[in-house]
């Protein structure tokens, strides 16, 4: 499952954007979005999802249960 | 005015073309760093080595005296942050360097550079460009350093300044030194991780979020290490500390010693700003801020250790203008895009040369007054208030003042002790009694108030409150005038013409200070 950003909670601080190893995060009109195609949950890069760790607002970067889990490369 | 030093910047046009024109232009003394030395006065400040004086003399935050003459601006290019502070709510703005409540306009480095040129053209006193957030500049290193590079190229006479929480500082000291950032402010609220954990709930470091005492320990180590590395490279460092009663107020004396021993140049103790409506953790928890007296007492107990900054205005991350005035609204991106920017370095130089002449005259007047005072021996100390717009002059009407500058006078001269914010008493020419009361309350502990002009009614009220309104030094220098007045005051006391009475710091005055914070 990729991560998603709850837009109503995002402060638009951009902290997550620079930390994502997959460049999956971008801004649209002051709010940040995660491209589910690109998000790997940081697997293979870091122990914890970087967007979650750096976001100042708890429970703003969350797993998107509606989408299937990302396939880790073999 | 030389036209070669003047460039028209059409905002609709291609900025890279403009950049090129400006980058190739080398006017007199445009080499960064030494630009101002040539036109500056030779008068240093007695207790500062000349090379340090050169660095601080035109910086309104690093030199109290300079803040009468020079302005600064902050460009908000750095929204992201890497730590969390309980006094900050980033849904709005950083409470640390800016008044909370209003979201700054986020700028790209290119927009920031344009804004710098626009402001420097409109405000010739502008000497310093800083990045102070609204997040942490070093959590946004590309944007911050790109901005500095652009300013270095386009307006090499401007000094660069950076404000950081210090977490990422050790990684960037070389870039800071390379880009000729002369002044760095580090916010250090503790050196004891137990205390730190109460102020900073988490940090994002080494790709992990750390919490609690461990996080505060890393933060503190990185801050002190960064400070040492910068001072070793000759970068002037100021330390800001937010004073939080019951949490770090006692501890800040230790912080003061620790940062002094690592070469910090100036320590700025600022009161915590915490209203529930700001939505910060401290605000919601009902953590109170210190009173003005508590701040002053702490500053006093640190003063024996090192220079304390007492003229800080806790500016917004996008503040523009002289300290105590915010002209940010005149320079929104929308307005700048519509402006025809003329960055005329020559005109700025000429203006600043005039400022320097006035400053030298001011220093001379101060020396003369001091010499006259030297003959008097007295233990008497009094506070006086001054209404001033800028330039170190007594040049504001009592009714128009939004704040008064307060000086302590003794036989060793006039010492700046702080500013008292008030709501201006007669905006539209009609005084309102309540505002006059507030103004008088704010300076109840002062013996006199120096103004350029004052109406009959407020004059009578001041006299009734025991404060002497003085308008005979209108448009003269503050230092020389207040010391001259003090000499006369002492003479009258000695001759038995007046009876010296101590005036106490009334509670009203602390309210005036904190309510404005
Ligand atoms: S979990 Fe990692 S990869 Fe996915 S958006 Fe967040 S930072 Fe990027
Ligand atoms: S870190 Fe959180 S608040 Fe900041 S932009 Fe990303 S999602 Fe929004
Ligand atoms: S917050 Fe204080 S130190 Fe920073 S620019 Fe304003 S006056 Fe200067």
Automatic annotation (TrEMBL), chain A:
Domain of life where this protein originates: Bacteria
One Pfam family this sequence matches: Fer4_10
Residue ranges occupied by any 4Fe-4S ferredoxin-type domain in the UniProt entry: 1-30
Key words, A-Z: Iron, Iron-sulfur, Metal-binding
Protein name according to UniProt: Ferredoxin
Native species: Bradyrhizobium canariense
Lineage, uppermost ranks: Bacteria, Pseudomonadati, Pseudomonadota, Alphaproteobacteria, Hyphomicrobiales
């Amino acid at each position: 499952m990729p991560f998603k950003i709850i837009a109503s909670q995002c402060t638009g601080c951009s902290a997550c954007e620079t930390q994502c190893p997959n460049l999956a995060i971008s801004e649209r009109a002051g709010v940040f979005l995660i491209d589910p195609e690109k998000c790997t949950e940081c697997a293979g890069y870091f122990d914890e999802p970087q967007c979650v760790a750096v976001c100042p607002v708890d429970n703003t970067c969350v797993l998107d249960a509606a989408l299937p889990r990302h396939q880790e490369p073999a | 005015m030389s036209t070669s030093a003047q460039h028209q910047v059409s905002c609709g046009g291609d900025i890279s073309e403009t950049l090129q024109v400006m980058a190739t232009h080398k006017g007199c003394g445009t080499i960064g760093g030494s630009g101002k030395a040539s036109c500056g006065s030779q008068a240093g400040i007695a207790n500062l080595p000349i090379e340090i004086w050169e660095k601080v003399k035109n910086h309104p935050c690093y030199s109290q005296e300079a803040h009468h003459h020079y302005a600064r601006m902050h460009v908000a290019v750095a929204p992201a942050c890497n730590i969390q502070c309980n006094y900050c709510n980033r849904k709005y703005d950083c409470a640390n360097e800016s008044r909370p409540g209003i979201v700054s306009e986020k700028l790209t480095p290119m927009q920031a550079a344009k804004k710098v040129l626009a402001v420097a053209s409109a405000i010739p006193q502008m000497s310093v460009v800083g990045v102070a957030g609204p997040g942490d500049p070093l959590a946004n290193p590309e944007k911050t350093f790109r901005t500095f590079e652009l300013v270095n190229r386009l307006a090499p006479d401007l000094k660069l300044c950076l404000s950081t929480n210090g977490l990422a500082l050790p990684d960037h000291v070389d870039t800071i030194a390379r880009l000729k950032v002369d002044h760095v402010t580090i916010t250090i609220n503790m050196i004891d991780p137990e205390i730190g954990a109460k102020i900073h709930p988490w940090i994002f470091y080494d790709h992990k979020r750390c919490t609690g005492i461990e996080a505060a320990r890393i933060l503190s180590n990185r801050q002190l290490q960064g400070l040492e590395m910068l001072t070793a490279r000759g970068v002037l460092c100021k330390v800001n500390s937010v004073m939080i009663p019951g949490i770090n107020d006692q501890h800040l004396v230790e912080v003061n010693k620790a940062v002094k021993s690592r070469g910090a140049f100036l320590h700025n103790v600022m009161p915590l700003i915490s209203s529930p409506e700001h939505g910060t953790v401290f605000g919601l928890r009902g953590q109170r801020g210190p009173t003005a007296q508590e701040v002053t007492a702490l500053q006093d107990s640190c003063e024996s250790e090192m220079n304390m900054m007492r003229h800080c205005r806790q500016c917004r991350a996008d503040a523009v203008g002289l300290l105590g005035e915010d002209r940010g609204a005149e320079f929104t991106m929308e307005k700048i895009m519509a402006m025809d920017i003329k960055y005329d370095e020559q005109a700025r130089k000429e203006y600043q040369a005039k400022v320097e002449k006035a400053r030298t005259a001011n220093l001379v007047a101060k020396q003369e007054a001091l010499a006259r005072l030297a003959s008097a021996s007295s233990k008497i100390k009094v506070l006086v208030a001054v209404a001033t717009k800028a330039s170190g002059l007594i040049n504001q009407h009592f009714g128009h003042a939004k704040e008064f500058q307060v000086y302590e006078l003794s036989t060793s001269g006039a010492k700046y002790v702080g500013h008292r914010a008030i709501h201006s008493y007669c905006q539209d020419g009609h005084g309102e009694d309540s505002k006059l009361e507030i103004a008088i309350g704010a300076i109840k502990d002062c013996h006199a108030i120096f103004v350029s002009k004052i109406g009959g009614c407020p004059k009578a009220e001041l006299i009734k409150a025991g404060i002497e309104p003085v308008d005979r030094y209108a448009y003269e220098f503050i230092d020389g005038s207040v010391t001259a007045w003090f000499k006369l005051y002492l003479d009258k006391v000695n001759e038995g013409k007046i009876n010296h009475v101590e005036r106490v710091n009334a509670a009203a005055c602390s309210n005036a200070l904190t309510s404005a914070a």
